Amino acid sequence: GAGVSQSPRYKVTKRGQDVALRCDPISGHVSLYWYRQALGQGPEFLTYFNYEAQQDKSGLPNDRFSAERPEGSISTLTIQRTEQRDSAMYRCASSFPEGLNTGELFFGEGSRLTVL
Amino acid sequence: QKEVEQNSGPLSVPEGAIASLNCTYSDRGSQSFFWYRQYSGKSPELIMSIYSNGDKEDGRFTAQLNKASQYVSLLIRDSQPSDSATYLCAVRSQGNLIFGKGTKLSVKP
To answer: What is the SS3 assignment for B64?
Structure first.
C-alpha cells in the first residue's frame, strides 16, 4: 500500500479483555516496529521484526504483550487481559533493513487504545 | 538500559530566531542519529539524519553530532510558526530505534 496502515484506529475495551492491533507495512519494507506513545511522551520501543523474525522484544512491558508477523508482512500486536495502564497510542512503523537505509521509519496513524 | 534524554520544554522562540534543540544518549556504541518532527495529533516524520561527527545542513535545519560527548543537537534557523511541533531525537542502537521524550517548540509570530 501507499503507507503504513493500522487498524483499528480507535479501540475502547473493558479491563480484562484481550485486544489485537493490526499493522500492514509499506510494500517492500522488511523491518517492522511497534511503539507505544503516551500523551506528551516520545514513542516507547516495544518490539521489531526483520521479515518474520522477531529481532528484539525487550521493550514489551510484560508477558501480556506479544507480537507476531508470520508471513513477513502484516503484524499483530496482542494485549491479553488488558489493564487501564495499557491505554495509549500504539504506533507501527516500517522501513528497509537497517543496514541498507537512512534509518527512516515510516509511521502509521496509530491505534488509540482506551481501557475502561 | 539505553536512554535518550531531551529537555521536554516548551521552548518558545520568536519568528525568525534560531531554535536550538539538544539531546544526549547513553549507548556509546550508537552509530545513527535522527531528528523526527511530530505535529500535534500526527505521526512522527523524519527531518534529519546524521552519522558522523560534525555538522550536517539541510535548508534551515542543521544537525550536529559529538560522539565523544554523546550529544546531538538540531538548529532551526529563521524559525517559522509552522515549525511549532514536538521534536524527537532518536538513536539507533543494536537494530532498534530509541526515541527521546521530545522537546515541544513554539514559534511565536
So the answer is: strand
Contact A103, A1 (CB under 8 A): no
Task: Give B29-41 pLDDT, tens digit per residue.
Answer: 888 999 999 999 9
Write out the H or E segment, with its range, that includes residue B101: none
Is the predicted pLDDT of residue B100 greater than 90, yes or no? yes
pLDDT at B8: 83
Q: Is A103 left (phi over 0), alpha (psi -120 to 50) or beta?
A: left
Contacts of A43 in chain B (CB under 8 A): 44, 88, 99
Whether residue B10 is preceded by a cis peptide bond, meaning omega within 30 degrees of 0, is yes
What is d(CA A29, CA A96) in angstroms, rounded to the nearest whole number?
A: 5
Tell me, yes or no, if A103 comes closer than 8 A to chain B by beta carbon: yes
Please indicate if any CB of chain A lies within 8 Å of the CB of B44.
Answer: yes
- Write out the three cell numbers for B43: 505521526
Instruction: Give residue A114's pLDDT band: very low, low, confident or very high (50, 70, 90).
Output: very high
Question: Which of B50, B33, B37 has its CA nearest to residue B79?
Answer: B37
Rounded to 5 degrees, φ, ψ at A34 are -115, 135
Which single residue is written with the C-alpha cell 512503523?
Answer: A93
Residue in B6, B34, B100 closest to A103 by CB:
B34
Chain A contacts of B97, Cβ < 8 Å? 33, 45, 103, 105
